[in-house]
Structure formats: structure tokens, C-alpha cells
Design a protein that fits this description.
The chain is α/β, with parallel strands linked by helices and 389 residues long. The chain contains 15 helices and 12 strands. The two termini are 36 Å apart. Bound molecules: pyridoxal-5'-phosphate. Pyridoxal-5'-phosphate binds next to α3.
């Protein structure tokens, strides 16, 4: 049986070159980057090199890049760091209804601490309503946080316009760019971003590693307290191997950006065309115009996405319903709810995400088995028999 992984937005395999770069730092080059002898200095230099590699991918200065334990920590740090620093100025933040739970659950926590949060909606294409966003700003607003690319429907948000609005109102702007990194062009200077979250394991680097970009001049409170690592802003002995791997993955993402995007989007388009044409009663969620190159989010009417996932798994195919993080909960996807997809249709939705190691043969294999699976489930579905809900 073939194994086909179509869940690259959940995580990616570590590339061979990345693993090769990491290996020496587990054993012979194991020094603590804070130690003052050669073994430590060598590790310190490796961290500095990785910082340059990550900075180069987003057009930042290396000193504006702070390593963290992943996208979740970066999101938490950005929100809590700004709220703590600016609490005397105001207690209002603005975000969207379609953020990752690392943002939404942090916002819920902040609400319990007395902060007020406005959750802006999206239009039928999945884009944030800019007027609603600007209208939500008050003299108490201290932060706007809008993700760059959505993890479920792949929509790319108008980040430059949002940053402009934030700047005009003297409000800090944070973006969760975990799904965007390596998949859409990012230039933090040109886009006017103050704070940006990144994660290594979504770009063929190791898990448990990420970074927060903090624009020079922006002051936020620390989140982890202890030693003076990361210029005194993020305590804890550096995840040396993770950082080296993230740096290498970022370098490769920059070098291979065009071919990566072309490869993923051509296979994705081929997949979407075939599914919509060859399987009746299917719908693509989100717009094709300004979308993550590997993302296809498809509703199969009259059946359960969860059942499709489990049957595809029997054919060695890995996909997800909603996002990986919410795949065990019965709550309908908050992103599809915000998009206005009816609840019955949300339950019939599957996310397929394509990446560098996906081949055309993989896609053909998935389409053939998907047809069988959908047909089988619909034959068993009472609502399909009635062709109505
Ligand atoms: C995966 C993801 C995160 C969390 O990143 P981790 O490194 O897994 O903690 C945050 N935001 C988005 C949009 C993601 O896709």
C-alpha cells in the first residue's frame, strides 16, 4: 500500500539537509551557548548564524529575531508581552474570528484578566473586513493581531493594509505568520509589521522551535524569566539543535521558494479540479485568489469528514478535518462557521495540504481512493438518499 501524507499544514518532515545540519550539535558540538570557552562560543556562533538565516527569509535584522519554543509560545509572548507592557495605556485588543487557538485561547485568558477583545469577522472569501477592523479601534486599543495565512482555508490576509490602519491609529500590529512562512513572500519592513510569530516544524524544520520577530524600537514585556539568553528577552538555555535546524530550514525555504510554490500550487490545482469535477456534491471553501499554495479545503455533502478521514487512513492517506489541533473535538470549525458554511456542511469538510514531497502519482492515488470512500459513505448515508438535510 502507498503512504500519502497530505497534512503539511499540521506539520512537515524534517528535510535531510536540515537533519544533517543539526546532528553535530547533539553530540560533539554540545556546548552551552552561554559558556565562555571555545565549545560554548562555537554554539553561540551557530545560534547567531541561524538568527541570520531566519532574519534573511523575512527581511529583518538578526537582532529583531528572538527564538522561542514554537508558534504557540510566540503568539502567547506577543499578546501577553504587549498587554503587560501597555496596560496603563489601554486594555483593548482587536483580533479575528479565524485565528489559531494559540491566539484565541490567549485572548480568552486575557479577557479573564480584564482585557477587552474584539473579534472581527471575514467576508465570503475568508478575508478580514477592513472597515469593521478600523471601526473597532478605540483610544484604549493597544494591539491588533491578524494572522497572515489561515491554517484551515489558506486565505492570505491583506497584511500591508491592516498594518497601515494600525500605524495610522498608533496601535501595535502582530501577525501569526506560521502558515505563511515559506509559502507567501514576507518582508516585515515593507509590510509594516511590528511583531510576527513563526514556527520551524511547518517549514521542514524540527518541532518545538520557533521565533518571534520584534521590530527594533518595539518594547514588550518578557514572557519567560530567568537567564539572560536572547539579549535578556527570553530566558532558558537555547534549544541549540532546534535553532540550528530552524535556521537551515529557513535558508532552504528562501532558496527554493519559487519552485516550492509552483510545485505545491500546480498539484493543489490539479487535485481540486479533479475532485470538484469527478466527485459530485463537493465544494471548495475559501477563495482560490490569494491562497496558501498547498491548501485545499473541501466539503463533501451528506457525509462526515471524520469518516472520510478514517477510511482514507485505511488506504495509507493522511488528511485532517479542521485543523490538527481541534481534530479530536466535536465543535464545528470556528473558521468555517465564520465563513458562513452551514454546520451540516462543516461536518463534511476535509483539509488536504500538499507539500514538497507530494507527487502527481500521490494525488492520483488519493483521488481514486477518495471517490471510492465518498461513494461508500454516501451509500450508507440516509441524508444522501433524500438529497437534503
Ligand atoms: C501550527 C500553528 C501554530 C502553532 O505553532 P506550534 O509551533 O505548533 O506551536 C500557530 N499558528 C498557526 C497559524 C499554526 O498553523
Amino acid at each position: 500500500m502507498r503512504n500519502v501524507y497530505l497534512d503539511y499544514s499540521a506539520t512537515t518532515p524534517v528535510k535531510e539537509e536540515v537533519l544533517k545540519a543539526m546532528l553535530p550539535y547533539f553530540s560533539e558540538k554540545f556546548g552551552n551557548p552561554s559558556s565562555l570557552y571555545d565549545l560554548g562560543l562555537e554554539s553561540k556562533a551557530a545560534v547567531a548564524h541561524a538568527r541570520e538565516q531566519v532574519a534573511a527569509l523575512i527581511n529583518a535584522e538578526p537582532r529583531e529575531v528572538f527564538f522561542t519554543a514554537g508558534g504557540t509560545e510566540s503568539d502567547n509572548w506577543a499578546l501577553f508581552g504587549v498587554c503587560d507592557k501597555l496596560k496603563a495605556k489601554g486594555n483593548h485588543i482587536i483580533t479575528t474570528k479565524i485565528e489559531h487557538h494559540a491566539i484565541l485561547h490567549s485572548c480568552a485568558f486575557l479577557e479573564k484578566q480584564g482585557f477587552e477583545v474584539t473579534y472581527v469577522g471575514i467576508d465570503k472569501d475568508g478575508r478580514v473586513d477592513l472597515k469593521e477592523l478600523e471601526d473597532a479601534i478605540t483610544d484604549k486599543t493597544i494591539l491588533i493581531s491578524v494572522m497572515m495565512v489561515n491554517n484551515e482555508i489558506g486565505t492570505v490576509q491583506p497584511i500591508k493594509e491592516i498594518a497601515k490602519i494600525a500605524k495610522a491609529h498608533k496601535v501595535l500590529f502582530h501577525t501569526d505568520a506560521v502558515q505563511a512562512l515559506g509559502n507567501v513572500p514576507i518582508d516585515v519592513k515593507d509590510m509594516g509589521i511590528d511583531l510576527m510569530s513563526m514556527s520551524s516544524h511547518k517549514i521542514y524544520g524540527p518541532k518545538g522551535e520557533g521565533a518571534l520577530y520584534i521590530r527594533k524600537g518595539v518594547k514588550i514585556s518578557n514572557y519567560l524569566h530567568g537567564g539572560a539568553q536572547e539579549s535578556g528577552h527570553r530566558a532558558g538555555t537555547e534549544n541549540l539543535t532546534g535553532i540550528v535546524g530552524f535556521g537551515k530550514a529557513a535558508e532552504l525555504a528562501g532558496i527554493h521558494f519559487d519552485e516550492h510554490v509552483a510545485h505545491c500550487s500546480s498539484l493543489r490545482n490539479y487535485f481540486v479540479d479533479r475532485v470538484l469535477k469527478e466527485i459530485p456534491d463537493t465544494e471548495l471553501n475559501g477563495t482560490m485568489d490569494g491562497r496558501h499554495p498547498g491548501n485545499a479545503n473541501i466539503t463533501f455533502k451528506f457525509i462526515e469528514g471524520e469518516s472520510i478521514l478514517l477510511l482514507l487512513n485505511q488506504y495509507g492517506i493522511s488528511v485532517s478535518t479542521g485543523s490538527a489541533c481541534s481534530s479530536t473535538s466535536l465543535e464545528p470549525s470556528h473558521v468555517l462557521v465564520a465563513l458562513g458554511v452551514p454546520v451540516e456542511m462543516i461536518h463534511g469538510t476535509v483539509r488536504f495540504t500538499i507539500g514538497d514531497f507530494t507527487t502527481k502519482e500521490d494525488i492520483d492515488y488519493v483521488v481514486e481512493n477518495l471517490k471510492k470512500v465518498v461513494e461508500k459513505l454516501r451509500a450508507l448515508s440516509p441524508i444522501h438518499a433524500q438529497k437534503g438535510w
